[in-house]
Every structure is written in structure tokens, then in C-alpha cells.
Amino acid sequence: MYSETPQRTAVLVVEDEPLLRMDAVDMIEDAGFKTYQAGSADEALEVIRNSDDIGILFTDIDMPGSMDGLSLAACVHSDWPAISILIASGVVGVTDEKMPKGSKFYAKPYATSQIVRDMETISAAHVQGG
Fold it and tell me: 53-101: per-residue pLDDT in tens?
């Protein structure tokens, strides 16, 4: 019997702290996802423009540069609506009204198992065309 590994959408990890970004990338790659990474929102937008397989944006909020993670999420939601958005931060008081519709927030420190489960669910929906 032939068993094919399910296709998964790629994940863009945006985190300005290199060690935190590396930990997140390792967690996501260990779950079987292809990853891209960026240290700022500006870099993330460049990665998205040059990649056609990104289906999930996993971003921090507090970052240097021209925009923070919430502004990045709003931009991605507007310009690439097919990309699902997951936001993680230690920032307190992030409400649904501040996030793009359909995005999900994780307070740091977050449970990696929950993020991986959510990414698997999102990826399955993307692969099925949902």
C-alpha cells in the first residue's frame, strides 16, 4: 500500500529576536512544514512577494521597522487574503478588533502543541481548497 505524506502549506515566521525566531522555525519544521523566516515586517512582505506557496503567516507583534506585527497582519490580510494569520506576543490587551478577521492570537509563552495543531488544521483546509 502506498502512503503519501500530506502536502502542507508553507509558513512564514516573522520575529525580530533571532533565538525566538529559530525556536519557532524549528518547532514548525519539526511538525513537517516548509518555513520561511523574516526579522521584520518589511522583510516579511518581500518574502511573500517572492514566494507563491506561503499559506500561513506566524508573526510577533512588537518589531522594529516601518510597521509592527498587527500592521503586517492587516496588510497581508488585505493584499493576500488566502494567507491565514497567526499572531503571537507578550503584549497584553490585544483584542479581536485590533486583529484582522479570521486571525488567531497566542499569548507568549505559548503552547507549541496548540500552534502546530492549528497550523495542521489550516494547512489541511488550504490543500483541500477551503
Answer: 999 999 999 988 899 999 999 999 999 999 999 999 987 777 778 889 9
Q: What is the pLDDT of residues 22-31, one digit of tens each?
A: 999 999 999 9
Query: How many domains in the chain?
Result: 1
Segments forming the whole domain that contains residue 53: 10-125
* Inter-residue contact 47 to 24 (CB < 8 Å): no
**Whole-prediction pTM:** 0.90
Which CATH number goes with the domain that contains 28? 3.40.50.2300
Distance CA 11, CA 98 (A): 22
Q: Which of these, 67, 68, 35, 62, lies nearest to 51 by C-alpha position?
A: 35
